[in-house]
Task: structure prediction
Amino acid sequence: MEFDDVILGRRSIRGYKPDPVPRALIEEIITLAMRAPSSMNTQPWNFYVIAGEPLNRIRAGNTERMVAGVPQSREFRTGQPFAGHHRDRQVQVAKQLFSAMGIARDDKDKRQDWVLRGFRQFDAPVCIIVTYDRVLDGSDDTPFDCGAVTTALVNAAWSRGLGAVINSQGIMQSPVVREHAGIADDQIIMKSIALGWPDHDFPANAVVSERKSVKDATVFVGFEE
Result:
């Protein structure tokens, strides 16, 4: 694909075919992603790529704990609930997704099932857990750098015909993830990425979220009109 086609065409994929993804292809994608910039070339990121039975154990553990009401234990802070324009955008994309999936506002069962899909890593055949070195905890540059490599990774995956969605629900029960992924104690769990071949018949995969305009997002200083 041309670069513009990747950037403009990519969207979050929340429904996947069960087909496995070759390890060599994932290694190729991660190699591309790690060309992302980082503060003073620190490259703080690491990746745990999970499939098969270990991933199934994470799905089950996440779901069981959330249904049982176990408080979330995400290691990277969530911050305050969204408000204002940020909340509006959150609600808007939720409306798009629920509409695509035919989930009515008062259908609690379908809404809960949709939420639980996130804790199951959207039933994708692969999950990539992005971590960073614990010795860098507290540095604002480090999560910024991990965001850069994660963006590069999902774009690289799209360029190879794979779909992905960056997902926080899949790591909210961090003890489950840490145990079954074998994540080292010197790592902080930051994000998860569901990865696989897109199921083009899954309605939510057609959803394209709206974007702010350049005019709304940008201030130009020192330019002549």
